[in-house]
Write a structure and sequence with these properties.
This protein is an alpha/beta fold and about 725 residues long. Helices cover about 35% and strands about 20% of the residues. It has 22 helices and 29 strands.
């Protein structure tokens, strides 16, 4: 059997709906695949909403003899409510696939919680019974966790014949994935390995220019993807490498080098470990540093550019608190002059310039070394703003990239957006405009492209600081790089409640005012802020349609609405996004997801961190400034925190497992629900902005999300 398998998780689609597979293109790709002697196909029930299995039936099972191909599928526990459903679930898979038996059947995505569930539900016994009955030929597991757990599972369940692992050169030594260690465990137990994610979801196609140049110098005819797949296929115990080929070009590329597979050898270059140079601007005094290659350092570099208020200590170091980093780097007992380090205790960055060797600290990880003359530190003051960025040409900082998502049909935004409301509203007196401007502009350089404001976001302290004025001025230099959303239709009543006004002339007046404040000629996404019960939403939609034709707005949306209102509005003028509250503590919006998916409407989630509660940063002793709404909320009282402590414990445990923060887990949970969900957390703090953006790099599996949902049901009740 040739080593390349067709992974059916990312098939060509007829449109942006993940469930709408282009069956005709899949047929052509399957024909091409099999014509070159490749026969292995891999799928699962969740892929393309079940239509991946149907695509296999239409493209392969109906058109080729059963003996000519190999098909694998999976028992996806997160899709099943009880073990009594196992037989029906499996039978449904056979019917969708159009086969009478499977060649391979995996327990899907086992990790800590899902493994415990598999044991509790006797899932291992079930797949063994299928093999005994001849309904599957071979059994195994796909695995997402640490090597120690894999060793435990294979020791307890030697009947598992194969292991499917995430294996690529980026994850080979990764402390979270532990690809090499997991591979060694499988080899120790004599279990052949099937590789998933050999190009890490496509991220190893676009690599550093230096690495690509190295590859091209050796074999200019080969693609960057080819090196990743051949790397994954080269270990002796690897039986098969799966590639999710979503178009014909990807397939042709894979076939070109896997028809006559040749393993990587010692003469061929592996992706090199490269030192990264950064610049540190200490209030106008710039020094350079070389950063080391470790997971701790990589996580730090992913947050650049970064501006910190650093303090001088004991004429030996500058230090500042930063969000937690993974603890996987060179641990050192004492520092040397020039060291850039991470203090595990206290989650601090420390840059040493004098009095070497006297850290008096435990848990010190070296991340890099200052290469400039340390004498520069003699003229730097006790407290200074330090801007740290990647050193590029002429020392310019490079803008970071963040995963993008599509709202509606074509509104592309960053996976995490920036809710700007709290900078002038809700959290007490308006924050310092200069500082907020600095944070907003740094957010753009961190990869944020989606910023949310509203007509009514005015300061609560009588200063009349307007959020749109702040956002417009801060983002003006970046206007062509960002998408701005604002809202219309309401004013606040004294004492609480809303005054509604959606007359066409009032909408136009609001729009012109927002355009002036935002210093722009168009709004990317214009929301009706609140729907007035009993009013004609169709009339508002007609006005939006006209404004879109005029080019004054590019898309429109609805905030805090029900399915009926969404459907009525969408029928008149297609809605791009709905903005509703949605978090682990407020899950009612979950009921809207099927309708939004049907209508191709994106979901923007406000209050995704439950006004900061899910950051786990508050306790009974927390004090909020005057005017901060949280000071009046039951959520932040001692009783309120105690009532929801189980939720905090849940995300805290998952955060530790993923080397993330509770906030990042909370945001990743939302984003994992659907690829068109975009959270817009609020913050006034630079470090929180960076932390929130980092959630785009956290991946929760479907099984992990399902497990979290089950526990939330237990802790706070199911979605009604």
């Amino acid at each position: 059997m040739k080593k390349l398998g067709f992974g059916l998780m990312r098939l060509p689609q007829t449109d942006s709906d993940y469930g709408n597979v282009d069956y005709e293109r899949v047929k052509k790709m399957a024909d091409r695949f099999m014509a070159e002697g490749f026969t292995y196909f891999d799928t699962a029930a969740p892929y393309h909403k079940g239509n991946s299995e149907v695509a296999f039936r239409e493209a392969v099972a109906k058109r080729y003899p059963r003996s000519s191909y190999t098909i694998t599928d999976k028992l996806s526990l997160f899709m099943i409510k009880s073990p009594e459903e196992f037989p029906a679930f499996f039978q449904g898979q056979l019917e969708r696939l159009g086969v009478e038996y499977l060649d391979y059947y995996w327990l899907h995505g086992l990790g800590g919680p899902s493994y415990r569930q598999a044991e509790e539900w006797h899932a291992f016994d079930f797949v063994q019974s299928l093999k005994a009955e001849g309904k599957v030929k071979h059994i195994g597991l796909s695995f997402h966790d640490k090597a120690a757990l894999l060793d435990e599972i294979l020791t307890k369940h030697p009947e598992m014949e194969y292991v499917q692992l995430q294996l690529n050169y980026l994850d080979w030594e990764d402390a979270t994935v532990e690809a090499r260690k997991c591979y060694k465990v499988a080899a120790k137990h004599r279990k052949p390995v099937i590789v998933m994610e050999p190009i890490k979801g496509g991220s190893l196609v676009n690599i550093l220019e230096e690495a690509e140049a190295l590859f091209k110098s050796h074999a200019p005819e080969l693609s960057t993807a080819s090196w990743a797949i051949r790397f994954a296929a080269s270990p002796a115990n690897v039986m098969m490498v799966l590639s999710g080929m979503s178009d014909e070009a990807q397939m042709e590329d894979n076939l070109s080098y896997m028809k006559q597979f040749r393993p990587l050898d010692q003469q061929e270059p592996e992706p090199s470990k490269t030192e990264t140079q950064v610049s540190l601007d200490f209030g106008g005094i710039t020094v350079l540093a070389e950063m080391e290659d470790s997971e701790t350092t990589k996580a730090f570099l992913n947050r650049l550019p970064l501006t910190l208020s650093m303090d001088r200590y004991a004429d030996r170091e500058y230090y500042a608190a930063i969000p937690a980093l993974p603890e996987n780097g060179e641990a050192i007992p004492d520092f040397e002059n020039g060291d850039i380090t991470y203090y595990i205790t206290g989650n601090s960055l420390a840059i040493f310039f004098g009095n070497a060797g006297n850290s008096h600290q435990a848990g010190l990880i070296r991340m890099g070394r200052i290469t400039s003359d340390l004498a520069a530190f003699d003229s730097i003051g006790d407290s200074v703003e330090v801007t740290i960025g990647l050193a590029g040409e002429e020392g310019e900082r490079e803008m970071q990239r963040m995963e993008k998502r599509i709202l509606g049909k074509d509104l592309e935004v960053s996976a995490v957006g920036f809710g700007c409301m709290g900078m002038t509203h809700t959290f007490g007196a308006a924050a310092d405009k200069k500082e907020m401007t600095r944070i907003l502009q740094a957010a753009v350089e961190q990869g944020y492209t989606f910023f949310d404001t509203a007509e009514v976001y005015v300061s609560d302290d009588g200063s009349d600081e307007h959020n749109e004025d702040l956002v417009g001025a801060a983002l003006k230099p970046y206007r062509d790089k960002v998408k701005i959303a604002t809202k219309f239709g309401i004013a606040f009543k004294p004492g609480g409640g809303f005054l509604y006004d959606t007359r066409p002339e009032k909408i136009r007046e609001s729009l012109e005012t927002s355009l002036r404040r935002l210093q722009t000629d168009h709004i990317d996404l214009y929301y009706l802020h609140r729907y007035e019960p009993g009013s004609a939403i169709e009339e508002v939609a007609q006005v939006m349609e006209q404004l879109i034709r005029e080019g004054k707005i590019l898309h429109w949306g609805l905030s805090t609405v029900t399915e009926d209102i969404i459907r009525r509005a969408h029928a008149v003028c297609p809605v791009t996004a709905v903005q509703n509250i949605f978090s682990m503590l407020d899950r009612d919006t979950e009921k809207l997801l099927p309708a939004l998916e049907e209508l191709h409407i994106g979901l923007v989630t406000h209050c995704p961190l439950a006004k900061g509660f899910l950051t786990a940063a508050y306790d009974k002793n927390s004090v909020f400034p005057e005017g901060d709404w949280r000071g009046r909320m039951e959520l932040f009282t001692e009783e309120g925190i105690q009532k929801r402590q189980a939720v905090l414990d849940l995300i805290g445990a998952k955060a530790q497992e993923k080397n993330a923060t509770p906030a990042q887990i909370s945001l990743a949970w939302l984003m994992g629900k659907r690829p068109w969900i975009v959270p817009i957390p609020c913050t006034r703090k630079m470090e929180r902005m960076i932390e929130n953006g980092g959630a785009a790099n956290i991946r929760l599996t479907e099984a992990e999300i399902a497990e979290i949902d089950r526990k939330l049901d237990d802790f706070i009740g199911p979605v009604q």
